[in-house]
Specification:
It is built from no helices and eleven strands. Strands 2, 4, 5, 6, 9, 10 and 11 form a seven-stranded mixed β-sheet that branches. The mean pLDDT is about 95. It is mainly beta and about 120 residues long. Strand 5 and strand 6 form a beta hairpin.
Length: about 120
């Protein structure tokens, strides 16, 4: 069972930066996509950014140019560098790992880390 352990959330003023980390423990999937989602109170969970094993990235329009997703495959860790943070970035941020293996799709979630941006 893959376990995703997140860290790096916290309280920051608008315009500030935070870096989230997510380590995938017991990861058996050599080819996978890791992603960050977020969910604000009263809103649906939304994709922030994702990155494949080969480094292809995808971003939500709302974070393009401000957030950068990266990964270290040797450490099974994905990062989210968040710059120029806005109050509307306030949410619970969740790490996700998805992979296809032997015709099945496997999907795992972290426990979430809170990011609060004050105005």
């Amino acid at each position: 069972q893959v376990q995703l352990v997140e860290s790096g959330g916290g309280l920051v003023q608008a315009g500030g930066s935070l870096r989230l980390s997510c380590a995938a423990l017991r990861n058996i999937f050599s080819i996978n996509t890791m992603a960050w989602f977020r969910q604000a109170p009263g809103k649906q969970r939304e994709l922030v950014a994702d990155i494949t094993t080969t480094g292809t990235t995808n971003y939500a329009d709302s974070v393009k140019g401000r957030f950068t997703i990266s990964r270290d495959n040797a450490k099974n860790t994905v990062y989210l560098q968040m710059n120029s943070l806005k109050p509307e970035d306030t949410a619970e941020y969740y790490c996700n790992l998805g992979a296809y293996y032997s015709g099945n799709y496997y999907n795992y979630w972290g426990q979430g880390t809170q990011v609060t941006v004050s105005s």
